[in-house]
Design a protein that fits this description.
By secondary structure, the protein is an alpha+beta fold. 36% of the residues lie in helices and 24% in strands. α2 packs across α3 and α6 packs antiparallel against α7. The two termini are 21 Å apart. It binds ligand DP6.
Length: 354
């Protein structure tokens, strides 16, 4: 990275989606290095949109920034972003010359209780990478832009590293994925079966209140967890098994791994010290109903969970209209105020202006 020699200013803006993990990232070490590889679908309608006005001046001596969320000052999140820049100052040698005015908003209701760090932090990373591209004359190859963005997103929030690409994305070194890395995510769409390119994820909001355990605290529960080694082994195994499954379009085998990952994640939380029980009674009710419909009607839908009570229901595009009617009739009554968010695999971040 060259030195800043002259003042420059401008504005960049990106929309970046959330993602849903199939193989979960749970446990980390060092500076945001994952304990196991993870795999996710990038979503489409659940995104963050972030605008960054930048002003770089070699005579400036200290980093300055402002952050607003949905038009209002948001000091808590602003502080997290400031700490991110300062903690990773080696990655930003121009930091002291930089002034940023950041404003962000989400497409999904703030009160939905769904994790927004993947979308928020990937949008942030896309903006920073655009600014770097402007300041230092672009990246030699287009792929380098995304690699840098994924690396910067990872340093802010591990799962955000995956949101930098559309479709199916892997993060963390895995024997079955060429060029996979712990430092940044890679897209794995080349041989992806069509069924999975348009897969649906409907988010059933069981409890919209703030998360009981932050993900950083959650990852820490894996340090000295008695089942940690077996968990990491299983995650690597699932990555390998999914290689063939995602190519052949075997929805049933995909669903088995998807659900096993969700239950393993919650099992790990329940057996950690301290222990967390993040499912609510309606989480369990909804899971039971999903299984009942699947068994009784041979209906191809499967669930997963993040580190919270809300259920992600996944199914192929072909069964969408039938799925919607089951959701309305059977599942929505068990959500908080009928809150259901319909989403689908998407194509990744979108540039708004530059
Ligand atoms: C359960 O990416 O939110 O959603 O790196 O501490 O920001 P930090 O953690 P975060 O963890 C996500 C955990 C998960 C599984 C996943 O998305 O892979």
């Amino acid at each position: 990275m060259k030195k800043i020699t002259e003042a420059q200013s401008g504005k960049v803006e990106w929309q970046s989606p959330s993602n849903i993990a199939i193989v979960k990232y749970w446990g980390k070490h060092g500076n945001q290095m994952p304990a196991n590889p993870s795999l996710s679908f990038t979503l489409s309608t659940s995104y963050s949109q972030t605008a960054m006005e930048f002003d770089v001046d070699p005579s400036r001596k200290a980093f300055e920034m402002n952050f607003a969320f949905e038009g209002e000052a948001a000091p808590k999140f602003g502080e997290r972003i400031r700490q991110y820049f300062e903690r990773n100052s080696a990655d930003f040698p121009y930091l002291n010359n930089l002034k940023l005015n950041i404003s962000s908003k989400n497409s999904f209701p703030h009160s939905a209780g769904i994790a927004s760090s993947a979308s928020a932090m990937s949008a942030l990373a896309m903006c920073i990478t655009s600014i770097e591209s402007r300041l230092f004359g672009g990246f030699a190859e287009k792929s380098m832009f995304r690699m840098r963005a994924s690396h910067l997103a990872r340093l802010a929030s591990g799962s955000a590293a995956r949101s930098v690409y559309g479709g199916l994305v892997a993060w963390g070194e895995s024997e079955s994925i060429a060029d996979s890395s712990d430092y940044y995510a890679v897209p794995v769409n080349d041989n992806l079966h069509d069924t999975f390119r348009s897969f649906h994820d409907t988010i059933l909001i069981v409890d919209a209140s703030e998360k009981k355990v932050s993900s950083t605290a959650g990852h820490k529960l894996m340090n000295n967890h008695p089942y940690a080694e077996m968990r990491y082994f299983m995650a690597r195994q699932h990555m390998e098994d999914l290689g063939g499954i995602m190519e052949s379009g075997d929805v049933e085998k995909f669903g088995e791994i998807l659900e096993n990952e969700a239950m393993s994640l919650h099992g790990l939380m329940m057996t950690s010290k301290p222990s967390y029980m993040l499912m609510r009674p309606n989480t369990i009710r909804i899971i039971e109903l999903i299984k009942e419909v699947r068994e009784a009607e041979k209906f191809p839908w499967y669930f997963t969970l993040d580190a919270g009570p809300n259920v992600h229901l996944m199914y192929p595009h072909e069964v969408e209209s039938q799925a919607r009617s089951y959701i309305n009739d059977l599942l929505a009554p068990h959500t908080q105020n009928g809150l259901v968010l319909y989403d689908q695999v998407g194509s990744g971040p979108r540039k708004i202006t530059e």
